[in-house]
Amino acid sequence: MRMERPKAIIALEDGTFFEGTSFGALGEKTGEVVFNTSMTGYQEILTDPSYKGQIVTMTYPLIGNYGVNEDDVESMKPHVEGFIIREYSSIQSNWRAQGNLGQFLKDHGIIGIEGVDTRALTKHIRTAGAMKAIISTVDMNKDRLIEKAKASPGLIGRDLVKEVTCSTPYPWKSRFPASSRPLFNPRDYRYRVVSMDFGIKHNILRILDSLGCDITVVPASTTAVEILSAHPNGIVLSNGPGDPEGVSYAIETARDLIGQRPILGICLGHQILGLALGGRTYKMKFGHHGANHPVKDLTKGKVIITAQNHGFCVDINTLRRKEIEATYVNLNDQTLEGMRHRELPMSSIQFHPEASPGPHDARYLFEDFMEMMEVSIR
């Protein structure tokens, strides 16, 4: 006889709520509710540290049908606060599958809820904006849950980076299983790269490694002096969660690094660079989360389809335009998606050139970073 699964509720701070059925861990968590438009890649999304503090709703209706495996992860564990879907497939059908999604969520303490009208929830977020919410399998009192959602901390001003960054420096090639190890032998490495870990995804490291970079990942609190003492050829400011203004120590470090070595900023790293350059950031209405966002490359005049995951944006009008050039713009809402310094070796992008999940249109940006380092070596 099939056991009946527990009921679950997602309640938003504006009083809206949706009911469903639990298919992950039991419990209760608060976070900002957002939607992701990717059709596949749920395991990469779950393990992307940039989602710390957020409850993710998948707009694609069927999730879990290809299971989970140890290769398709972007960090050591899931970081989402909750996971909302329309329909869960408890049967996985893929030759790479090593387990099912529901058990994966249970093993890592992530609450999952299925049977939700995710289209209605997505339309509500698009109208009202991303907002604080709570997901629960233990409290079915809607009024009480709404009050809990209202009282939750939200994202603005919080330092979520400290919850996902590494505790000590490590070389990428020594830390992870065979499927993630370098494609190069040590003698093939040409560039020494230090990456500040604000919540870095594995695929950033995999791609840098494949291009001949000997990578050391350092905690977000690492100072500029400590980074430069490693004599890197280039520095990466990684992706990560939350409000960049909550990570003041990283902004100070980025300010001290500008002009010292070639720098590539990705997502949160891009926002931190914007603040370090004297600009401002702002909270977006519902952010960009998905694998299908059109972006125009202003330097080449072409359009690329990008993977994105961010709820804050750099205001290009607050930067010194004589020094900073906008390089990419989002074609859906015209927000800034990239910039570079007109004289110093520094560029940044708001989207994710490493994808996972998503298209590979923007992968050439890593090669541009290699060229930036090559010029500095000559």
Question: How would you describe this protein?
Answer:
The chain has helices at residues 42-46, 101-107, 118-128, 142-151, 202-210, 224-228, 248-257, 268-276, 364-377; strands at 7-12, 17-22, 28-36, 54-58, 62-63, 82-84, 87-88, 111-114, 131-136, 170-171, 191-197, 213-219, 234-237, 263-266, 280-297, 302-315, 324-330, 336-341, 346-349. It is an alpha/beta fold and 378 residues long. It folds into two domains: 7-151, Carbamoyl-phosphate synthase small subunit, N-terminal domain (Glucose Oxidase, domain 1), CATH 3.50.30.20; 161-377, Class I glutamine amidotransferase (GATase) domain (Rossmann fold), CATH 3.40.50. The strands form three sheets. It has a ten-stranded mixed beta sheet, with helices on both faces. The chain has a seven-stranded mixed barrel with strand order 1-2-8-6-4-3-9. Strands 5-7 form a two-stranded parallel sheet. β1 (7-12) and β2 form a beta hairpin.
What descriptive keywords fit this protein?
single chain; 378 residues; alpha/beta; Glucose Oxidase, domain 1; Rossmann fold; 2 domains; seven-stranded mixed beta barrel; 19 strands; globular
Secondary structure layout:
Blueprint: E1 7-12, E2 17-22, E3 28-36, H1 42-46, E4 54-58, E5 62-63, E6 82-84, E7 87-88, H2 101-107, E8 111-114, H3 118-128, E9 131-136, H4 142-151, E10 170-171, E11 191-197, H5 202-210, E12 213-219, H6 224-228, E13 234-237, H7 248-257, E14 263-266, H8 268-276, E15 280-297, E16 302-315, E17 324-330, E18 336-341, E19 346-349, H9 364-377
Parallel strand pairs: 3-4, 4-6, 5-7, 6-8, 11-12, 11-13, 13-14, 14-19
Antiparallel strand pairs: 1-2, 1-9, 2-8, 3-9, 10-12, 15-16, 15-17, 17-18, 18-19
Helix pairs in contact: 7-8
